[in-house]
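In response to reviewer comment 3 from the previous cycle, which asked for concrete evidence that the modeling workflow produces usable outputs, we include below a single protein chain processed end to end. The sequence was submitted unchanged, and the resulting structure tokens are shown without manual editing.
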Amino acid sequence: MTETVLITLRLPQPLADAAQAAATTQNISRSNLLRIALEQFLGVMSGTSEADRRRQFSAEYLFLVADLIVQRQYPDAHSALITEAERRMEALCAAS
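The workflow returned the following structure tokens.
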């Protein structure tokens, strides 16, 4: 079993009440609710949350679909579009 550490936390009363109400609604302890919330927050902050992974996958999939359509239906424009995308990426990276 994972070792746990007791952390004392002070919350404004409205936030504590909201946490208790959410825990009651989900039929879990307030401690478990706060643990889940912290895990999700840390995942979002590190860019590795489930929602972030889903967005990244969807974006990559859409880029691949668009590239495939352009390659097949507009082969003459494909090279120019790739060149322009590379130019824009260079400009974006240079600006940051």
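The chain has a mean pLDDT of 90. We consider this sufficient to address the reviewer's concern, and the full set will be provided in the supplementary archive.
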